[in-house]
Specification:
Length: 279
């Protein structure tokens, strides 16, 4: 297969943990989330990683809210690749978490193992992961493997080897720096990259102040990058990002300096074998 040099930028615009008390710039409603997704698309992102909130601003995996948000994103940024979270929040049960895939997304996250997550436990038992994989496969939704620990990569590889997930291409997200899970360091990133199949692609989501350093290292290593308020609220020390698009735009600038072209959603659709979907 031809080498894919272009940089894939994922914007993780809201997450489940961040609150408006921490930043007034957090998009929460379907209108705000879809406006923010469009801004990130205009800035150079080609995937939006999506969580949604209920009318009180609390995280929810409610299918209707996902459908409304995905529908608005499709109207405002029709080309943007929509990746819904099936991770939700740590306290949610499997049945609640998996509802998001009813919104006809292009992709969905598949967390491939359990770990501590701050003060909480992020539970992804073997049975849950298999069930989520089956439901995604029935709906032709491409999984993105969410790996918070190195062993999560091995379980993702096992899923592929045993045919529990079948897709022509696999994309891994190394989430690094969640308190209680793998740390965000360069040697560990290099190690994680060594564990995925040669033909697969990978992105890194560095948490907190490690977002930018890990993204910059990934750029130089030929990997891909996830940025956004789910992972990091700050543009620089003590300065809140005023929008997710600011964080995307900075990655685009650095990539250009390093000679990495930015991938378009159409290029990524070809690379990932995604069909165009509508709600
Ligand atoms: N909110 C975390 C507990 C995902 O989106 O798939 C899980 C998470 C992963 O954000
Ligand atoms: Zn997420």
């Amino acid at each position: 297969m031809a080498k894919f040099d272009q940089l894939i930028i994922t914007a993780a615009i809201c997450g489940a943990e961040v609150t408006r008390n921490e930043t007034p710039y957090l998009p929460l409603t379907p209108e705000e989330l879809s406006d923010e997704a469009k801004k990130c698309y205009d800035a150079g992102a080609c995937i939006v990683h999506l969580h949604v909130r209920d009318p009180e601003g609390n995280p929810t995996q409610d299918a209707a809210i996902f459908k409304r948000t995905v529908g608005l994103i499709r109207q405002k940024a029709p080309n943007l690749i929509v990746q819904v979270s099936t991770g939700g929040a740590t306290w949610m049960k499997a049945e609640e978490r998996i509802q998001s895939i009813e919104s006809a997304p292009d992709m969905a996250t598949l967390s491939t193992g359990s770990c501590n997550f701050g003060d909480d436990l992020f539970l992804n038992s073997k049975g849950m992961v298999l069930e989520f994989a089956k439901k995604m496969s029935e709906r032709a939704i491409m999984p993105e493997f969410e790996c918070f620990e190195i062993g999560h990569i091995h379980f993702a590889n096992w899923l592929v080897q045993k045919g529990h997930v079948v897709w022509p291409h696999f994309h891994y997200d190394f989430v690094m720096g969640v308190p209680g899970a793998i740390a965000a360091t360069v040697p560990l990133l290099v190690r994680m990259r060594e564990e995925i199949p040669a033909e697969a692609s990978w992105t890194v989501a560095g948490i907190g102040r490690m977002e930018l350093p890990m993204a910059t290292v990934a750029l130089a290593m030929g990997g891909h990058v996830r940025v956004g308020m789910e992972d990091n609220l700050y543009y620089s020390k003590g300065v809140l990002a005023k929008s997710n698009a600011e964080l995307v735009a900075r990655i685009v600038r650095i990539a250009k300096e390093l000679g990495r072209p930015i991938a378009t959603p159409d290029e990524v659709r070809d690379y990932f074998h995604l069909q165009k979907k509508s709600l």
